Amino acid sequence: MKQPTDFSSSVMEATVDGVHDAMREGRLTARQLVQSYLDRIAAYDKNGPGINSVLQLNPHALAEADRLDAQAAASPSVPLASLHGIPVLIKDNIECAGMETTAGASCLQGNLAVDDAFIVRRLRQAGAIVLAKTNLHELASGGETVSTLGGQTLNPYDLTRTPGGSSGGTAAGIAANFGLLGIGTDGINSIRSPASANNLVGLRPTMGLVSRTGLVPCGLTQDTIGPITRTVADAALLLDVIAGYDPADPTTNAAAPHIPRSYTDELNPDALKGTRIGVLRAFFGDGPEHRAVNAVMQAALATLRAQGAELVEIDEAIRPDALLADTLVHLYEMKGDLDAYLAEAPSGVRVRSMADIIASASVHPSVAGTLKNAVTLAGNEAEYCERLQRQQALRERILGLMAAHRLDALAFPHQRRLVVPVGEAQAERNGVLASATGFPAIVIPAGFSEPDANAPHGVPVGLELFGRPFSEAVLLRLAYAAEHALGARRPPLSAPALT
């Protein structure tokens, strides 16, 4: 019999269901939950190991918790809303009313949001509490999570390494139990990279399933928003809330027929039985630098096979590095999309265009070259259209491959090598397949490399499952079964339970 979590002393690895059980039984209030996470942030984010994942706390979080507690006490027979009292970490390129939206850039200070982003409004309607805005790679334009406002976020499993990116602040915070649920954004790798690096679940949804209204854009053909959580079940609950039609984002027009009653309905630890999963061999490395990841992946795939999945070797010559070079369009769109966003920014924002940002000479050096490249590529319609055509050809090729092999999903490591040390550029990530097609993908914890002095658990390795458009229910079902079979999630030793 499962023992109830003692929330009076620890929120370590708390889940939405566990928290709501405790609230219904009178063992926990929303205020106690919020305060517990604030205490952990105070102990470990800027102090202790200095994980440095939080850019700004919501000054009204405790007041919002008090309001929810009073509401629940006044109507004890009314079921709790799906995310009642749940503290959420939000990447700071998403607007939350009353808080700045900086994307980590000092030149965007003063960008005080008047309204919530569509997905934040959905979260609040479901009872969630915005606890904090998190650090990111500045302007969501890199994989190491370093910014002029936030500095360098560290990986809580190995404080000498990056947490991946660009949503590394959210991921490091969720991994270290600074909040219960997390929201990230993904233009190429940016949800799944930090999920892989921080022993978490990260879901990039099908383009159009989740609104981007209120997002500081990098390139709206590829930009999307999604969950970063410690468990698949919590990712499914979070997706239930944020998925859906938004009249302000036309890409969401097609989503409604594909959204189930709940993404949690078919979660089943036996769901791998009878499935066919294609192992995309071109997304594995074969050098000595890839051995640590390959060893974890070999063991993880063997576990999936033991759970009844049929693994189909796919030798299709789809090379991630070639896709990165030839199919992505964000740099062709970044100037136009960012200029349109900044043109509507509050009067307190001193930059009104990408040209202003470049002229300010204030961005992190890792981003300056990207912005200049984007200015050069803006308006190159011939190359832009050619890349859009390549994306469509890739969609058709992948759908044909999956149909020919009767596959439920494709599987591969999110990164071919371990997440890099601080100061190095992120290398050999595989998230491009989902970003170039707009198809969904989920990363789950697969295991750890061998422990060493810097990484007492080892460095986390993430397994990516990739599916057809709007197949989130399938991916979550497979991920849930794989998560239960692998049992790879564990909290980092750098941020233990407070006493």
General shape: globular
Shape-level CATH architecture: Alpha-Beta Complex
Strand order of the largest sheet: 1-3-2-6-8-7-12-13-11-9-10
Structural class: alpha/beta
> Which ranges are low-confidence, i.e. pLDDT below 50, for 5 or more consecutive residues?
none
The topology string of helices and strands comes to HHEHEHEEEHEHEEHEHEHHHHHEHEEH
Terminus-to-terminus distance: 26 Å
Rg (CA only): 21 Å
CATH class: Alpha Beta
- What does the main sheet amount to? 11 strands, mixed
Helical proportion, percent range: 25-40%
CATH-defined fold name: Amidase signature (AS) enzymes
Number of helices: 15
Strand content: 5-15%
Arithmetic mean pLDDT: 97
EC number: 6.3.5.7
Protein name: Glutamyl-tRNA(Gln) amidotransferase subunit A
Domain Amidase: 33-476
Enzyme class: ligase
